[in-house]
Write a structure and sequence with these properties.
single chain, 763 residues, alpha/beta, TIM Barrel, Vanillyl-alcohol Oxidase, Chain A, domain 3, eight-stranded parallel beta barrel, 20% strand, monooxygenase, FAD binding
Length: 763
């Protein structure tokens, strides 16, 4: 008996008929509606009675929301692997990680040759497939900057650029029956995908044995390879053979295949809508329940918690991996796992955590926090990993990744209240709200996570119109260090609600935020380039224009120093928006003209477009490039002294990226004591990035320190104690310490500018 402990999946194997091209699309939608997990299609490019499978996959992915799509299996001899890899990555990105690579070495050689493909012997087919795997995975590895070279006998790639990286680690499932192909699965692939109709009694067990031996020899755990099975049958009143009988018989026989033959994915062959509905609505839930009960009784270790010798060797000291609860282990990623490269880094900071936990809700978050308290390593919480400070990753520690909590749900149409999972990105939020004509101010980049920005501040393109992001937050849910799940609002745990809006990362793990969106139509988005030779003069004029502008205008500036082929320039990115209506182009032009007058105009373009087109959905793939040192300051005004200080910072060369963001407007309507973010009179925020902390600290302290009026911590990597008081001026800091003592007295959440609890500070 062999049970690898895979989480069970159920899907369909549909015919890509071209007679009525919408039929396979309808069946794929039915697959999703029936609660199944994947829709797959056979691939015979030489068959004119069939739609092209790749085109169909893309159409079905766009027509569905949840299911995975795959070829079953794609015909490699007629699909060039480098191009196929880019197509797969593109579809995976567009679908949000819903593509799997079912691949075959080829078999019907006469029609393949007739279509211009090669004729290969069985041995050559395996060689070609092995080369194709190297090509595809090389293309997907966008972190490696070196050109891809695979000098194969069948596929030669001689310096191809890598990328794009897919949205997730695309699994490769191979259709195979012969020993050499099975060994290739064990050493290189992610799944075995045979059809039951082609198997004889005992073939599953024999195939598993070959795959398992090859996996072990390659340093892998056999459970790393998912076992899939195409199968057919009929639902009928009486038993007429295998999978020819009532629902109860199907449940019993599929349960046996899962527990005795290790099948983790059952794919129903056929196009009968009633059978698909029954398979999804009755068979699949019952099989899941029966298998789960048997596993509980037998103490089966989930496949995701098992590791081969290579992965075990990569584990880090200070972490008791064996004590991790099973529901967390099921989705955890360790250094030896292939998914590790996609979760170890954040946007600008490289990381090498000892384990990344990916909980699915408050209960698992509480388990994760409790387990982490028993480990002797750093602990970090990640929303989407975009944070400039890099504190959502670490070296050798634990990262609690909240990416699974990414729902966007309207809970009150009248007040435009939206409940957003903290693992969502602002691009996803903007895309979801756009059809309603709603928007929430949310930074300037769609890849930023909701949790980090929504509990720290939120300086966005709609900031002067709507205020800070935290000013729109009306409720939240949080898991505390003790495992409590608390709600916070003006009426429920109001002290916690106050602290969450500005210092949320210090209080616990926020799971969702309820935010009141604004009614915002199309916006005018402007990009200007100005001559910044007179940097201080430019800043003074721009600052005055911004402060005098209507609240609908928010403007950000990036200053670039002189280079060999050009003098210093300023790039302005500005948004003009109106509450409850589309932006008035004439009013926008008038407001933008005041900005253009700040200096010699070198270029300008402006567009009327939805907010979601500016703050757009972005890939979640982070490579950790740069690891910059950063400083941040809030500025009351860009008067002469302040502008000259910024000019001297730029001239020093210590900051290779210098940005000013306009704040103020609606943010000034909130009293300084109303939230833990107390900076309610400043009009600008300044950020500088440098290669080393010491270099930028020296110039920053000398030039910016004297004009600085507070700090926005999300853009700072300097951990000297004075940063905390700059960010939380008294009496805010003392109040935060008291609240911290109530909700996190042991200072568990201390990886991001920790606020010492009052009692701990006194001790």
């Amino acid at each position: 008996m062999t049970d690898y402990g895979h989480e069970l999946q159920f899907g369909t194997f549909l015919t890509p008929t071209s007679a009525d091209p919408q039929t396979p699309v309808r069946l794929a939608r039915l697959t999703e509606q029936a609660g199944l997990d994947l829709a797959t299609f056979q691939d015979h490019p030489y068959q004119p009675a069939f739609l092209d499978t790749w085109t169909l996959l893309t159409w079905v992915a766009a027509a569905t929301e949840r299911i995975t799509v795959s070829g079953n299996v794609l015909n490699l001899p007629l699909r060039q692997p480098a191009v196929l890899a880019r197509s797969a990555a593109s579809l995976d990105l567009l679908s949000g990680g819903r593509f799997a690579m079912g691949l075959g070495a080829g078999g019907f050689w006469d029609p393949i040759v007739a279509m211009g493909g090669p004729r290969r012997s069985p041995g050559e087919s395996v060689d070609a497939l092995e080369e194709a795997l190297r090509v595809m995975r090389g293309i997907w590895d966008a972190r490696d900057r070196a050109p891809l070279k695979v000098p194969g006998d069948h596929y030669q790639v001689m310096g191809a650029k890598r990328g794009p990286a897919p949205a997730h680690d695309i699994p490769v499932w191979l259709g195979a029956y012969k020993p050499r192909m099975l060994r290739l699965i064990g050493s290189e692939a992610d799944g075995w995908l045979p059809s039951l109709a082609y198997l004889k009694d005992g073939d599953l067990a024999r195939g598993n044995a070959v795959i398992d031996q090859a996996a072990t020899e390659a340093g892998r755990d056999p459970a790393e390879i998912r076992r899939l099975l195409n199968l057919g049958g009929t639902i009928r009143d009486t038993n007429a053979g295998f999978l020819q009988g009532p629902v109860g018989q199907w449940v019993e026989e599929l349960t046996r295949l899962a527990l005795e033959d290790g099948v983790g994915t059952f794919i129903l062959t056929g196009d009968d809508p009633r059978l698909i509905e029954t398979f999804g609505g009755e068979v699949a839930p019952a099989v899941r329940e029966a298998v789960a009960a048997a596993r509980r009784a037998g103490g089966t270790v989930p496949a995701s918690a098992r590791r081969g010798t290579n992965a075990l060797a990569a584990r880090r000291d200070g972490i008791d991996y064996g004590s991790l609860p099973a529901d967390l282990a099921e989705r955890a990623v360790e250094p030896g796992d292939r998914e590790y490269e996609s979760v170890r880094h954040n946007y600008l900071r490289a990381g090498a955590p000892g384990i990344v936990l990916r909980p699915r809700g408050p209960g698992e978050i509480a388990e994760a926090v409790d387990w982490s308290l028993g480990q002797e390593v750093p602990f970090a919480v990640r929303s989407a990993g975009h944070g400039l400070s890099g504190r959502s990753t670490n070296d050798g520690g634990i990262v609690l990744d909240l990416g699974a909590l990414r729902s966007v749900e309207v809970v009150d149409e009248a007040t435009r209240r939206v409940r957003i999972g903290v693992g969502a990105t602002w691009g996803e939020v903007a895309e979801t709200l756009a059809p309603r004509g709603w928007a929430i101010t949310s930074g300037d980049y769609g890849g930023v996570g909701v949790g980090g920005l929504g509990t720290t501040g939120g300086l966005g393109f709609l900031g002067r119109l709507q205020g800070l992001t935290i000013d729109r937050v009306v409720a939240a849910e949080m898991v505390t260090a003790s495992g409590q799940v608390l709600h916070a609002s003006a009426d429920e745990n109001p002290d916690l609600f106050w602290a969450l809006r500005g210092a949320g990362g210090n209080m616990g793990v926020v799971t969702w935020l309820e935010i009141e969106a604004g009614a915002v139509g199309d916006v005018v988005f402007s990009q200007m380039v100005l001559d910044a030779t007179d940097t201080a003069g430019l800043l003074e004029k721009w600052g005055s224009a911004v402060e005098a502008a209507p609240r609908g205008l928010t403007s950000f500036m990036i200053l670039a120093p002189a280079r060999r082929d050009q003098g210093p320039v300023a790039q302005l990115m500005s948004m003009y928006a109106a509450e409850g209506a589309d932006a008035d182009p004439d009013a926008a032009i008038a407001a933008l003209e005041t900005l253009a007058g700040a200096g010699p105009l070198l270029g300008h373009q402006a567009q009327l477009l939805p907010y979601s087109a500016v703050v757009s959905r972005q890939s979640r793939h982070h490579a950790g490039a740069g690891s910059p040192a950063a400083r941040s300051a809030l500025l009351a005004h860009l008067d002469r002294d302040t502008s000259r200080a910024v000019e001297r910072l730029l001239a020093s060369g210590s900051s290779y990226f210098t940005q000013l963001r306009a704040t103020g407007g609606a943010a000034h309507d909130v009293a300084p004591g109303a939230t833990a973010y107390a900076h309610r009179h400043q009009n600008f925020q300044l950020t500088g990035l440098s290669s080393t902390q010491a270099r930028i600290n020296e110039v920053w302290d000398a030039e910016i320190g004297p004009v600085q009026d507070g700090s926005y911590l999300s853009f700072d990597t300097d951990t000297r104690p004075e940063r905390l008081l700059e960010a939380f001026p008294e009496p805010t800091l003392s109040r935060l310490r008291e609240i911290k003592a109530a909700y996190d007295p042991s200072n568990v959440f201390r990886s991001n500018f920790p606020i010492p609890p009052a009692e701990l500070l006194a001790a």
